[in-house]
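ESCALATION

Customer reports they have been waiting on this structure for their group meeting. Please prioritize. Original submission:
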Amino acid sequence: MKQIKKILVPTDFSAAAAKAFDFACQLAKKFDASIKLIHVYRSDFGMPVPESMAYQMLEARKDDAQRKMESFLKSKDRAIKIESIVEMGFPSDLLADYTKSKEEGIDLIVMGTKGEHNLAERILGSVTYAVIRDAACPVLAVPEHCSDLNIKEIAYATDLKSDTAESIVEADNIAKLFKAVLHCVYIDTNGDNSGAEKIRFKELTSKLGLDVILTELKSDTLNHGLDSFVHEEGIDMLLMYRPHRTLFEKIFHISVTKMIALHSTVPLLVFKKQ
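Update from on-call: job pushed to the front of the queue and completed.
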C-alpha cells in the first residue's frame, strides 16, 4: 500500500458516516493527507414524474444536500485540507470512478458501516459492498461504534491456498505503514488437512524475509472464528485481500446473515492488486 495522501470519504450525514469522517480525519493527520468529502444524491424518484417537476425536485435535492454539507463541515477541524462536493448519480459508480481517475489521485476510501444488526443489509448489495468490489484503491469500512484511531495489532485473514508474494507483502506493508504488529490467521471450518498449504505459506513468507506468525483456529464458521481471534488477541483492524474470492464470498455472501459482531467495533481494510 502506497503512502496515503488523499482520502475519499462518502457521507450521507448519518452517525455512521460521521464516525467514518472522524476516523479519516485522524488518518489525514497521521499521514499528512487531504480529504475529499462527497455526498451523492440520487436522480431517481421511484415513480414516474413529469419532466418539469423532476427538474425542480432535483434542484431541491441539490440545495438540501449543499445545506447539509455546509452544516456538517462547520464544526470540523480546519487544520486538515478538506474538499467537499455534492454530486448526482449512483454512489457506488461515482466512488469507483473517482478511484480510477489519475487526476483525483485517491489512495484510500473510508466508509461508515452500521452495527452488527444492520451490517448485512448495509454491505450485501449495498454501496459499501459495491465499492469494495469495484474500487481501484483500498477501502476501509469503519463501524459506527469503533474506537478512535489506534492501530497497533492487525489481523490478516488468509485462506492459505490463494496467497501470493504480492498479497502477503502488501499486508506486511500496510502493517508497517501503521507501525503495527501483523497477525496472519487461518480459520479451519471443515477439519481440512491444511498441512501442505501451511508449509507453502511459511516457505513463502520466509523467502520474502517476513517475520510472520501464522495462527490456525478451528471454528464452526469463518465469521465466528475471526470474531473470536479479533477479540481474544485485541486486534485493532482486520485486513482482507480482495482476490481471495472464496474467502471473501464466504464472509460477504454465504454467511452474510450471520455477519460477525467484530465489525461493530473493528475497522475492515480490503485491498487488492494496484
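Sent to customer with the following note: The beta strands are 6-10, 34-41, 82-88, 108-113, 139-143, 153-157, 181-188, 213-218, 237-241, 268-271.
Escalation resolved.
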